[in-house]
Design a protein that fits this description.
Ribosomal Protein S5, domain 2; 9-stranded mixed sheet; formyl-coa transferase, domain 3; 589 residues; Heat Shock Protein 90; single chain; 5-stranded mixed sheet; 3 domains
Length: 589
């Protein structure tokens, strides 16, 4: 078959397949163009998930007739004035966005350059260009793309539902708005306005809170770090403020939103000690570096980047997050306490009444039931206390400690402690799990995990191949295993710190972790998760009754343990209620 040149229109449609993957891709390109044009306001409107209409209006610099005619040509751009591809200071530069969109849609552009006597417009319908005409457009640029992919029905049928495509567009615009707080962004769809973010000037934190919500503001910490000319800034959420997916992770390189495996892995590694594998942190991270040290043209949609020194960038992100997490390790998510207060407040449907006088007494009240006296009534006898922890048992100075003094144990699971300005409710299993985990880590780093030999080796029914490739790594944790014939493993030694342990359950859980990782190298990268599994098996279980000294000892250990505000799975270990919040519930404030 002879070689021949493809039709230019077909070439444009092939190129469009790389750049315009879905309606959200077109929106991204158009909004980036508006930002590069210096827009201070960008209004986006879509219909039918972007398939029916995409409209982007900006108040940027606009274009004159000559620029507009060139803008719809392939490989024409204003974003590389000196032709230097190693130093890109704009959001987009491929020079294919507008011609690619025009190849698969009915594209109309109206624009007016600053100072021009009038505007101009052009229409390109599925790649067929119409002549330029004069326009009365007042300022900036308006771009409308209608009937997206109508000229390429094969691509059209693979699009998702209108709701899904609209959600993708919302995500794209939010990610661009996050990095440009000086610009006002609005987005509307068939159902009406979806959001309208006012310009925030240089207050990037305010824009983050606009997008991620005030709840994030109450549960986030600030990041500031620099290493060898690479700067990191932004906000990250507490481990107890996590999500079921990574959609709430926003990463930017020189103002460009990216979805790069390097950053996803770095964030995951930093939170590895604090979150289970199915939970994801919330973060908005901004990397600033020399444009010459990063290649932004390795992906058609500009979603990935390549650094000259990826190890430096990854180390900066992991180190900064870990250091900040260590400093905030005793802080639990504020939303836990707030949620508890809200539930209690909603549950009290009675109208507010002023508190009674201080000398008021029910027995002396004319409304007291007959026979009601000052002594305790048998009807209110709830039985023996669930724990031997009374106020007089705890030293008077203990409430001065951050987590206060233990006063009681509820349902043999939760410790109630009194602080100077409120109370703390502690999940005894979650708290002890973190304490044991940190001890195991420290012991492994300093002297290696001490072992204890079992008097009678335990036999665990398990495929002998499940752990065969990781026996050496497990031995480093103090867990000595060996094959014991077909379908069985023999446990000879366990970590001494664990004391008595359910060998069968422990080995099965570790085997599941190894299967999830896929190979021994994967397990080696997540050694701490094995220790976390060990810690979970040894922790004080819910349902165990504790004495007052035991509860206070647990509180004191929490105060000196890194990451004590959450367990190894990202759940909070305690919730704090301030006295002011409690008084509000009872109408005292």
């Amino acid at each position: 078959m002879p070689v021949r040149r493809l039709d230019p229109l077909l070439v444009d449609r092939i190129a469009a397949g790389e750049v315009v993957e879905r309606p959200a891709s077109a929106v991204k390109e158009l909004v980036e163009n508006a930002l590069d044009a210096g827009a201070t306001r960008i209004d986006v409107a879509v219909e039918q998930g972007g398939k029916g209409l995409i409209r982007v209006i900006d108040d940027g610099g606009g274009m004159d007739a000559r620029d507009l005619a060139l803008a719809i040509e392939r490989h024409a751009t204003s974003k590389i004035p000196d032709g230097d591809l190693t130093s890109i200071a704009t959001l987009g530069f491929r020079g294919e966005a507008l011609p690619s969109i025009a190849a698969v849609a009915d594209l109309t552009i109206e624009t007016r350059a600053m100072g021009a006597p009038h505007g101009c417009s052009i229409r390109v319908d599925a790649g067929e260009k119409r002549p330029l005409t004069a326009s009365n457009w007042p300022r900036g640029t308006k771009i409308e793309a209608r009937a997206l992919f109508a000229a390429t029905p094969a691509r059209l049928k693979f699009l998702k539902t209108e709701r899904t495509e609209t959600a993708a567009i919302v995500d794209v615009v939010k990610r661009l708005a996050m990095a440009h707080p000086q610009t006002r962004f609005s987005l509307s769809a068939d159902s009406g306005a979806l959001f309208d973010y006012a310009a925030c000037g240089d207050d990037s934190a305010r824009r983050m809170f606009q997008i991620l919500g005030e709840e994030f503001a109450a549960n986030a910490f600030r990041l500031e770090a620099e290493r060898e000319g690479v700067k990191l800034s932004g906000l990250a959420g507490l481990p107890t403020y996590s999500r079921g997916n990574a959609q709430m992770q926003y990463v930017y390189v020189n103002g460009r939103p990216v979805r790069d495996k390097l950053f996803a892995g770095a964030i995951r590694a930093a939170y590895l000690d604090f979150l289970s594998h199915d939970r994801h942190p919330v973060a908005a991270l901004f990397i600033e570096c020399d444009p010459r040290s990063v290649d932004v043209n390795v992906h058609p949609a500009k979603a990935e980047v390549r650094f000259a020194d990826p190890g430096l960038v990854r180390g900066l992100v992991v180190g900064a997050l870990k250091q900040a997490l260590a400093e905030k390790s005793h802080r639990s998510a504020d939303t836990n306490a707030r949620a508890a207060i809200d539930v209690l407040a909603r549950g009290n449907g009675a109208p507010y009444r002023a508190p009674p006088p201080a000398n008021w007494s029910l027995p002396r009240s004319p409304y007291a039931p007959a026979g009601f006296e000052d002594q305790p009534q048998a009807a209110f006898d709830a039985g023996a206390p669930m724990a031997d922890a009374r106020a007089h048992d705890a030293p008077a100075q203990e409430p001065e400690s951050p987590l206060g003094a233990a006063r009681a144990q509820l349902h043999e699971t939760y410790i109630i402690a009194q602080t100077q300005d409120g109370l703390v409710i502690v999940d005894q299993h979650a708290a002890h799990e973190r304490i044991v985990y940190e001890k195991l880590k420290r012991q492994r780093e300093e002297t290696g995990v001490a072992r204890q030999m079992l008097l009678i080796p335990a036999v665990v029914e398990l495929d002998e191949n499940a752990l065969a490739s990781a026996l050496d790594e497990l031995a480093a944790f103090g867990l000595a295993l060996e094959t014991f014939g077909p379908g069985a493993m023999l446990v000879r030694e366990t970590p001494a710190l664990l004391g008595e342990v359910d060998c069968k359950r422990l080995v099965e859980d570790i085997a599941d972790l190894l299967v999830e990782e896929g190979d021994a190298r994967g397990l080696s990268r997540r050694l701490d998760q094995v220790l976390a599994t060990c810690a979970c098996h040894h922790s004080v279980r819910a349902g165990r009754r504790l004495s007052a000294p035991e509860m206070n000892a647990l509180l004191r250990e929490m105060e000196t343990t890194p990451g004590a505000a959450q367990c190894n799975h990202g759940r909070p270990t305690y919730i704090e209620l301030k006295l002011a919040d409690i008084e509000k519930l009872f109408g005292r404030r």
